[in-house]
Design brief:
The protein has six helices and nine strands. The chain is an alpha/beta fold and about 250 residues long. It has one domain: Rossmann fold, CATH 3.40.50. The radius of gyration is 17 Å and the shape is globular.
């Protein structure tokens, strides 16, 4: 049964048609903000995270607004973790897949370990590949895949080599898959935020002006806007920059 709901974005009402939405990395930050933005009575949210406490809080925050909420606690850095998530999601088609989970290793490239490199590839590239490969074939026409990328998918930054590598890789992969999916009318939406004020910065050395960063809610609004377009309209790419200049 198809769902139809209204979402208000900056004073305007848009019609969204969704049934099941899978969001990876939904326990906090951008992922949680997207979950809260898309929560609606006709939507079942499948929310993934590794922090059991934070994920439980995110699920509780949206539960009363949704038809259902499913907790998915799996490690996307491993093939087994991705496989277990896929099994738990089940065979019912997804209407929206949002690849948001990501990790950042920030250090000079000579100091990046093989484990850190492989973990970055696993979470930021391989997991989205496996999820798209598994679920796209069952997604109905008009459905959407959303990738939360970064301006680091287009520009290299000193000290962020592993992270930029992973975002460049997902950028190229998603562009190619977008062309394969057009005949099936499945939309591939790439979001490119500048520095966003999330917990990822807690582990990054240095004094970063977090009060000048984009808010996770602003990224969530961009996602909701792209999804709100009619099924025959594709918002392929959205870049979010700081009006006063990026960091």
């Amino acid at each position: 049964m198809s769902s139809s709901l209204s979402v208000r974005i900056r004073g305007d009402s848009f019609r969204l048609k969704m049934k099941r939405i899978l969001i990876t990395g939904a326990s906090r930050g951008i992922g949680r903000a997207i979950a809260e933005k898309l929560a609606a009575p006709d939507v079942t949210l499948l929310l993934h995270g590794r922090d059991t406490v934070a994920l439980a809080e995110a699920c509780k925050a949206v539960q009363s607004q949704c038809a259902g909420v499913v907790k998915l606690i799996h490690d996307l850095a491993t093939a087994k973790g991705v496989s277990n998530l896929i099994s738990q999601v089940g065979t019912d088609p997804l209407d929206v897949l949002i690849n948001n989970a990501g990790i950042a290793v920030v250090k000079p490239f000579r100091e990046v370990t093989s484990d850190e490199w492989n973990q970055t590839l696993g979470v930021n590239v391989t997991a989205p590949f496996l999820l798209m490969q598994r679920f796209a074939g069952q997604m109905p026409p008009g459905s959407s895949i959303v990738n939360i990328l970064s301006i680091a998918a287009k520009t290299g930054f000193s000290g962020w080599s592993a992270y930029c590598m992973s975002k460049f890789a997902l950028e190229g992969f998603s562009q190619s898959v977008r062309e394969e999916l057009r005949e099936h009318r499945i939309r591939m939406i790439n979001i490119y935020p500048a520095a966003t004020n999330t917990e990822i910065w807690d582990d990054v050395a240095g004094n970063w002006p977090r009060d000048k960063m984009i808010a996770p809610e602003e990224v969530a609004s961009a996602v909701a806007y792209a999804l709100s377009q009619s099924a025959n309209v594709a918002v392929d790419n959205i870049t979010l920059s700081n009006a006063a200049g990026n960091l």
